[in-house]
Amino acid sequence: MIRKKAQKQDVQKKVYHTDRFYQPITTPKIEITNSTFKHVQDILQKEITILQSYVEINQAVFYVPKEQVLHALEILKSLQYNILSEMSAIDNLAINGTFELFYQLTSHEKSHKNCRRLRVKCTLKEDESMPSVSNIFACANWSERECYDMFGIKFENHPFLKRILMPIDWVGNPLLKTYPLKGDEFASWYEVDKIFGKEYREIVGPEQRDSARIDRGDSINFSRIGKEVPKGATPSDMVHEISYQEAQKPPILQKFPNTKPKVLDKRV
Fold first, then answer.
1. What SS3 string covers the chain?
2. pLDDT digits over 255-265, tens only?
3. pLDDT tens figures, 105-138
């Protein structure tokens, strides 16, 4: 049965999840004390305040204060969790006014056979910054730049905190949930403004910047399936059989009868 649709007004500024067809079962969370990660937690707790911890899908998760993330990662690296495989953020601003940063660590040591993966998490407010961990994990250099580019989160003492995916003069952060799905006015006119100048907006026309634009009268850039006409010809509503075979060319596919199929001894 399909559940009732939720209102989707002002969806760009509201965070919600309404999967009408399937709700996945929440994966169980196991206490650290009943897992193979207990010794890791015991070492961390000597110097780090652990706000919350659990094991989910054979992976330990530790929530720590943002001021202690740097030291926590130093300790974990000394325990041979020396691979930072992922680092990014989650926009929870509409829920509780914070970002959730996570650092995914992996170890390939034999002693960590049953406890290879763990994740360190922290929360910070929109106007707060984080210390860079690029001096501990070199690969965090690009991950923090991507996080800055996509979310606008600043990292203190980063060696080169510049955008990495979007142009340097881009306005806005595309992975914020308040960022329009199709981009804002600046995004839709970026190339035109950059190459020709804003005065060319009227010459180009807003319809040319609409990614969902369809012109049924244009047979050069658009094709109507089943009603194709030669390029540049006047569109027609005459329906004809679709053929993918070029005239006077070697056949690309031999037609097989549907009524009396037979098994061939060898390929033709």
1. CCCCCCCCCCHHHCCCCCCCCCCCCCCCCECHHHCCCHHHHHHHHCCCCCCEEEECCCEEEEECCHHHHHHHHHHHHHCCCCEEEEEEEEEEHHHHCEEEEEEEEECCCHHHCCCCEEEEEEEEECCCCEECCCCCCCCHHHHHHHHHHHHCCCEECCCCCCCCCCCCCCCCCCCCCCCCCCCCHHHHCHHHHHHCCHHHHHHHCHHHHCCCCCCCCCCCCCCCCCCCCCCCCCCCCCCCCCCCCCCCCCCCCCCCCCCCCCCCCCCC
2. 555 566 677 77
3. 999 999 899 999 999 999 999 999 999 999 999 9
